[in-house]
Design a protein that fits this description.
34% of the residues lie in helices and 17% in strands. With 357 residues, the protein is an alpha/beta fold. It has 2 domains: 16-251, Type I PLP-dependent aspartate aminotransferase-like (Major domain) (Aspartate Aminotransferase, domain 2); 254-355, Aspartate Aminotransferase, domain 1 (Alpha-Beta Complex). Strands 2-10-9-8-5-3-4 form a 7-stranded mixed sheet, sandwiched between helices. Strands 11-12-14 form a 3-stranded antiparallel sheet, covered by helices on one side. It has a two-stranded parallel ribbon with strand order 1-13. Strand 3 (91-96), helix 4 (99-109) and strand 4 form a beta-alpha-beta unit. Helix 1 (16-27) packs antiparallel against helix 6. The longest helix is centred in the C-terminal third of the chain and has 21 residues, at 255-275. The chain is globular, with a radius of gyration of 21 Å.
Length: 357
């Protein structure tokens, strides 16, 4: 088979060494003679994997004392509810930057007063709102740092007068983060942290237990902290692959080194979009995502969209069709995407330009 270049928005491309180690563990987990798909989560060797995975999260993100990392089922969509259940007492504030932010806000509205302090919906979420006031009486302020559908990203840790909670599903581990500025960081693993099937949460422990509502056992984050993410059977295989992915990030030099590579990849692709007369970027330049590069055919060239998609596929480009709600193209260049992958897409765009010059 000829070389393919995977730009899927999720589940993400995983490093080859991670895939190789996962294949070996499916055959035999740590010399037990049992597949990782079949082991008990009470197996002593599994405890070691869970502990290593938590330790790697703490090391790679320099997570300070007083925080804990838990692994959950249900994805970030379930965590929208976890957030509101555990932190919303009187009022919550949200920044509306796209589909996932709206869904998070919806869950909070089901439990109490929740307001959008600002929204970029007026321009189809092509930018990150800048001038807004975070209500001082809010229990927390919620942001979605990277918006996969629209290709925008909030790249700096903001200062919030109230507890800050962030959905970092699609840019976690892609850049350094000052965890101390957040009360909770959460997300699905399937962009940068592993396969689908497990979600992570980084939680400031002393912020829990402040709401007066009854918390169902499974929706109380303290349950998962106290039981070390094993109150019920965890998604063993997904956590194993997450651990291998974190080990790979460390082997690459850590988050800062990976961030440098990500910025180079993004610049390479955005430079071509800006240069090539057939294409135009859709996100505001100052808010462009380094993870999800969204673009469309230039005005007057829209009839070439399907032809470019077909041509790109023939050249081994996988997953560059834009989200169905916005159309166009999207190249998701998460951590495991290589500079070679990006340069192959750029070459494809340049060749297509020659075909229509």
């Amino acid at each position: 088979m000829s070389k393919v270049h995977v730009f899927n928005a999720g589940p993400c491309l995983l490093p080859q060494v991670v895939l190789d180690n996962a294949i070996e563990a499916i055959k035999d987990f740590k010399g037990t003679g049992v597949s990782v798909l079949s082991i008990s989560h009470r197996t002593p060797g599994w405890d070691e994997t869970m502990n290593e995975c938590r330790a790697l999260w703490k090391e790679l993100l320099n997570i300070p004392e007083g925080y804990e990392v838990v692994f959950l089922g249900g994805g970030a969509s379930m965590e929208f509810l976890y957030v509101a259940m555990n932190f919303l007492e009187k009022k919550a504030a949200y920044l509306d930057t796209g589909v996932w932010a709206k869904k998070a806000l919806k869950e909070a509205k089901g439990l109490g007063e929740a307001v959008a302090v600002a929204s970029s919906s007026d321009k189809n979420y092509c930018y990150i709102p800048k001038d807004y006031v975070i209500p001082a009486d809010a229990d927390y302020f919620h942001i979605t740092t990277n918006n996969t559908i629209y290709g925008t990203e909030l790249k700096e840790d903001i200062d919030s007068p109230v507890p800050l909670i962030a959905d970092m599903s699609s840019d976690i581990l892609s850049r350094p983060v000052d965890v101390s500025k957040y009360t909770m960081i959460y997300g699905g693993a399937q962009k940068n942290a592993g396969p689908a099937g497990v979600a992570f949460a980084i939680i400031k422990k002393d912020a829990l237990g402040k709401v007066s509502r009854y918390l169902p056992t499974m929706l109380d984050l303290r349950t998962h902290i106290d039981k070390e993410s094993m109150f019920n059977t965890p998604p063993v295989f997904s956590i194993f692959v997450m651990n291998e992915t974190l080990k790979w990030v460390k082997s690459m030099g850590g988050v800062a080194a990976v961030h440098e590579l990500n910025e180079k990849k993004a610049k390479t692709l955005y430079d071509e979009i800006d240069r090539n007369p057939l294409f135009v970027g859709t996100a505001a330049v100052e808010d462009r995502s380094s993870m999800n590069v969204c673009f469309v055919m230039a005005p007057g060239k829209e009839d070439l969209q399907d032809e470019f998609l077909s041509y790109a596929k023939s050249q081994g480009m996988i997953g560059i069709k834009g989200h169905r709600s916005v159309g166009g193209f999207r190249a998701s260049i998460y951590n495991a995407a290589t500079q070679e992958d990006v340069e192959a897409l750029v070459a494809c765009m340049q060749e297509f330009e020659k075909m229509h010059s």
